Write the structure tokens for this entry.
Amino acid sequence: MTALFDALETRLSTLPPRALNLPGLVLRESAVLVPLFEREGVTHILFTRRPAHLRNHANQFSFPGGRRDPEDVTPLHTALRETEEELGIHRSRVRVLGMLDEVPTTTSFRIQPFVGVIPGDGQYRPSAEEVEFILEVPLRGLLEPSLYRTEKRTAQGIEYDVDFYTYNTHVVWGATARILRSLLALASEVGPQNWR
């Protein structure tokens, strides 16, 4: 296990995640797992691309996750259940490092992101209904400043910044990119000595 995972776990344990405070807005609960893994000594992050037929966020890169079901005791249960459903990774094989701040979406969801370590063996059983493509990216590669940009967008009369990361031909944007930016800031904070 890399020193980065240990350092992230320690840092996340000292940072209580900030819940959204958006008076007047009713947002549906959802949760995602931000999956990290080590392969051949290199830390990677995993994204899934959603199929074109889905109603929300079709063709977009995302982290495994989704809406909180009534039987999900906590948002963490949601993130682990969805990871199991989407990628075939049993929850017992995920080392949960901690939580990042909640993130809102323009589709009226509030996302609770959990950072977790998954096996690095690449043995996925993706759900054809929910996953069209799996993208594995070396985490260090995403720190290159030229990969990141923001654009102004307007929703419901409010202008806001949208984050974008372009890795090769793949574009990660929106709430997923916002979560990624938060993780990268935290990983940079815990120090390059922990990176591989």
Remarks:
- The first strand starts at residue 28 and ends at 39.
